Amino acid sequence: SRLMRFSVVIPLYNKARFVEAAVRSALEQTLPALEVIVVDDGSTDGGAQALAPIADRRLRVLRQPNAGVSAARNRGIDEARGDWICFLDADDAYHPEFLAALVRAHEACPEADVLGTRFRTVDETSGQPFEPWAVPESFCEVELIDDLRQRWMRQTTLCSSSIAVRAARLASMQPRFIEGENWGEDLDMWFRLADQTPVAVVNAPYATVRGEVPGSLSKHERPTRLPPFLGRMRQQALDGTTPERHGRSSLWFVAQQQLTLAREALSAGERMTALGWLVQARHAVLSKRWLVTAVMVLCMPVGLADRWHRWRVRSAEVFSQESIQ
C-alpha cells in the first residue's frame, strides 16, 4: 500500500451543501490519500467557500470558469501527483475503508489498471454527512472483469464515485473525458479504459451515491436517443478501432440500450418509435431480451407494457441494492 499514492479528484459545480461531507470522507480514510483536489467549475453558490473550515494541507481547491464536468475532471487529472487517481462526485462520499479496499483489489489483481468497488444509493438531499455504514465482509471478494460491457448488463458494478485509475494509464488516454458532453461521459471513459486493461472490483459497497439531488447530471428525462458515446462505441466496433475481442460485445451492448429505448417508447405510447428501435437493435436479434421486446412492441397493449416496464425497472433497482447489502 505504500507504493499506492492516491489522488482524489472532485469536480464541483453548485453543490455547496454537499461538498464538505464529500471532501471529509476522502480526507478521513484509514489509508490516507496523498491529496484531494477539488475543481470548482464556476460554481455560483459559494461551494469553494464551504470548504474553508477544513484545515488540511492535502486539500487543494482549484477554480476555473464553467466548462462542464469533463473539463473539471480533466483539470484534476492534469494537476494530480498520485500514482492512482480516484474520482468522487461532490454530492457523494467514500466509506472510511474505500482506499484500503482499492489496495486489496490491486494486490489481488495487479494486472488491472482500473480498480473499483460497488456502491450504494441513498435518497438523501439534506447535505448532512452520511452515517457510517457497515460493509459485509462475506461479500468482499475481488472480481476481475475482462469484458466490462457484458458484466455491466448483468449488474452495474461501479460508478464515478467508486473508481480509481492508474495515473500512467490516464496519461496515455486521448481524449480523456470528452469535454462538452455531460450524458454518459463517465461511462465512455470507463468502457474505453476497459478495452485496454482488466478491471478489478471489490464486491462490496465502499461508496455512497446520493439519489434525487437537484441539479444532478445523473437524472434525465425519458431518453429518446442514444447518448453520443454509444454512437461512437458502435462506429468504432464496426470500423475495427475497438480491440477485436470486444468488438462484438460493443455492438451487443449498444443493441441492449436500443432495446431499452424501444421499451421506453412503448411505455410512453409510441409504438412506431419502439418498432424503429427494435429494428436498429439487430446486433441482439433473436436473443431472449430482443424476442421479449419484439412481442411487447408487436402485441402488448400500451398500458400493460407501461406497467410491466416500470415493474421491471423497479425490480432491477431493488436487486442492485439488495445484492450489496
* Strands, count: 9
SS-based class: alpha/beta
Shape: globular
| Low-pLDDT stretches | 214-220, 318-325
Share in helix: 40-55%
Order of helical and strand elements:
EHEEHEEHEEHEHHEHHHHH
Strand content bin: 15-25%
Compute the gyration radius: what is it?
Answer: 20 Å
Ends distance: 27 Å
What's the rounded overall pLDDT mean? Answer: 89
Work out the helix count. Answer: 11
Largest sheet: 9 strands, mixed
In short:
With 325 residues, this protein is α/β, with parallel strands linked by helices. The protein has helices spanning 16-27, 69-79, 98-108, 148-154, 167-171, 185-194, 228-239, 244-267, 271-280, 288-299, 302-322, and strands at residues 6-12, 35-41, 59-64, 84-87, 93-94, 114-122, 142-145, 163-166, 199-210.
Describe this structure in words.
- This protein is an alpha/beta fold.
- Helices cover 42% and strands 17% of the residues.
- It contains eleven helices and nine strands.
- The chain has helices at 16-27, 69-79, 98-108, 148-154, 167-171, 185-194, 228-239, 244-267, 271-280, 288-299, 302-322; strands at 6-12, 35-41, 59-64, 84-87, 93-94, 114-122, 142-145, 163-166, 199-210.
- α1 links the parallel β1 (6-12) and β2.
- Mean pLDDT is 89; it is low at 214-220 and 318-325.
